[in-house]
Each structure stands twice: as structure tokens, then as C-alpha cells.
């Protein structure tokens, strides 16, 4: 339990510490320049701009932390936070994580957990049927004679893999479900359907890339289980998917 807790908070801790270090370095440089030579006009302009950038970074990060517990109402502000999260704060966490010898898998998982908190807080109870459940093709049994492409309706419900359970959930909630064989197809499915919410199942690497590429959409990430290794007969708990769907479709 303790290990799982530290895994969840790793991303926000890394971002917070990286911002703190950037701020300290900035002030040390400014103070050093001032004591040695004083600040020229262009120096004042440059340091003022850098100071404003740091203030924006810290202010936006505080707002992102708040958004994990309090709903942000303006849609443009949600999109701004999402863009900053995937394009600024995640790269910061990766760089600082490498400096601290942190495993990339745990940083990605922590980033996904953090993003899920924001998505649930801001989009829970939307009562929208325009939800897309995006599944990886590796959930399908390798022995299955039917190749499911895009549409889960093609599943014959033999019970040999988790696809049948996912198909049942699709019927129960009357939501769109698609099976993607790769990132390009997943992007096409998202662009074609324009969902209000995406529940995506995949490994941590693919989910992280998907969340970053689809930052305009709220993506709730569900990590699959890989008992036989990556990208081969993976599994996912129907209870976890049911819990995720119920959060948004009631």
C-alpha cells in the first residue's frame, strides 16, 4: 500500500521539486549578476520576462493541483491546464526523474493517475452517452479465428478473452467501443467520433502517448495487465472498466 501511494504522488512531487529548483537557480543567477555588474536595461527586461514565465508556471501548476479536487468550470481553462500538463509539466517530471534515477514506468503511471484525478473531478456525472471506450487489440486471444478490427460487435463471445466482457459492458451502457491496433488507428477513431469522454485501456507507455496526443479530450486511463508479457493476450478487470464508465455515465 505504501509503495502504491508513493507511486501515485511521484509525478506531482517531481514537478513541484523541479519548479522549486528552477526558481532557486533563477534567483541565484539574478542576485549573482546584480552583485557583480549590476543589471543593464536589457538585463532587467530579460529577467523580468523570465520571472513572469516562472510565476505563470508555478501559478498554473497550483491550479492543476487544485483541479484534482475542485472542478474548473471554464472549458478554455481546462484545455489550457491539459496542454500545460502534457507539454510542460510531464517533460519536466521526466527530466528531473532521470536526474534522480527514477524508473520511467513509474513516472508514466503516476502521470496517468494524476491525469485521471483531474478528469474525474472535472467531468464526473456528465450524463453523456457520447463516451468512447478504446481497447487495445492485444486483449484478444491469439487463438481466436476472428480478427476484431475497430468494431467490438465482431466478437463472437466465446469467452476465451476479455473482449466478450467488454462487449457486454458496451451493451449495458449503450456506449461506443472501438478496438485499435495502434496509435494511428486510435487517433483516427477519436477524430472520427469526437467523444465527450474517452476511457482508454493500454500499457503505461501507449496510454501516456495517447493522453499527450489527445490533450483536447478528457482521457481516463486504465492500465491493462500483462501476465504473458507486453502486447500479447493482455487482460483488464471488467470491474475497473465498469467503475470508470459509471463515473461519467449515470
UniProtKB/TrEMBL annotation:
<keyword id="KW-0472">Membrane</keyword>
<feature type="transmembrane region" description="Helical">
    <location>
        <begin position="12"/>
        <end position="34"/>
    </location>
</feature>
<keyword id="KW-1133">Transmembrane helix</keyword>
<feature type="transmembrane region" description="Helical">
    <location>
        <begin position="46"/>
        <end position="68"/>
    </location>
</feature>
<keyword id="KW-0812">Transmembrane</keyword>
<dbReference type="InterPro" id="IPR002829">
    <property type="entry name" value="DUF116"/>
</dbReference>
<dbReference type="Pfam" id="PF01976">
    <property type="entry name" value="DUF116"/>
</dbReference>
<protein>
    <recommendedName>
        <fullName>DUF116 domain-containing protein</fullName>
    </recommendedName>
</protein>
<feature type="transmembrane region" description="Helical">
    <location>
        <begin position="80"/>
        <end position="97"/>
    </location>
</feature>
Amino acid at each position: 500500500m505504501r509503495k502504491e501511494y508513493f507511486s501515485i504522488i511521484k509525478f506531482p512531487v517531481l514537478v513541484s521539486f523541479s519548479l522549486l529548483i528552477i526558481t532557486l537557480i533563477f534567483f541565484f543567477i539574478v542576485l549573482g549578476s546584480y552583485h557583480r555588474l549590476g543589471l543593464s536595461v536589457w538585463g532587467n527586461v530579460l529577467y523580468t520576462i523570465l520571472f513572469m514565465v516562472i510565476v505563470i508556471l508555478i501559478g498554473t501548476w497550483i491550479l492543476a493541483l487544485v483541479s484534482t479536487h475542485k472542478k474548473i468550470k471554464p472549458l478554455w481553462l481546462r484545455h489550457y491546464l491539459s496542454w500545460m500538463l502534457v507539454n510542460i509539466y510531464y517533460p519536466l517530471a521526466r527530466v528531473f526523474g532521470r536526474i534522480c534515477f527514477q524508473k520511467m514506468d513509474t513516472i508514466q503511471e503516476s502521470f496517468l493517475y494524476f491525469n485521471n484525478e483531474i478528469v474525474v473531478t472535472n467531468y464526473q456525472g456528465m450524463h453523456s452517452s457520447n463516451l468512447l471506450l478504446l481497447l487495445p487489440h492485444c486483449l484478444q486471444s491469439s487463438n481466436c479465428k476472428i480478427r476484431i478490427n475497430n468494431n467490438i460487435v465482431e466478437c463472437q463471445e466465446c469467452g476465451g478473452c476479455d473482449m466478450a466482457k467488454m462487449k457486454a459492458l458496451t451493451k449495458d451502457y449503450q456506449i461506443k467501443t472501438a478496438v485499435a491496433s495502434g496509435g494511428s488507428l486510435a487517433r483516427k477513431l477519436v477524430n472520427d467520433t469526437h467523444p465527450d469522454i474517452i476511457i482508454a485501456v493500454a500499457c503505461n507507455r501507449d496510454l501516456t502517448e495517447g493522453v499527450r496526443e489527445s490533450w483536447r479530450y478528457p482521457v481516463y486511463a486504465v492500465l491493462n495487465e500483462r501476465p504473458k508479457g507486453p502486447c500479447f493476450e493482455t487482460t483488464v478487470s471488467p470491474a475497473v472498466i465498469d467503475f470508470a464508465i459509471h463515473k461519467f455515465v449515470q
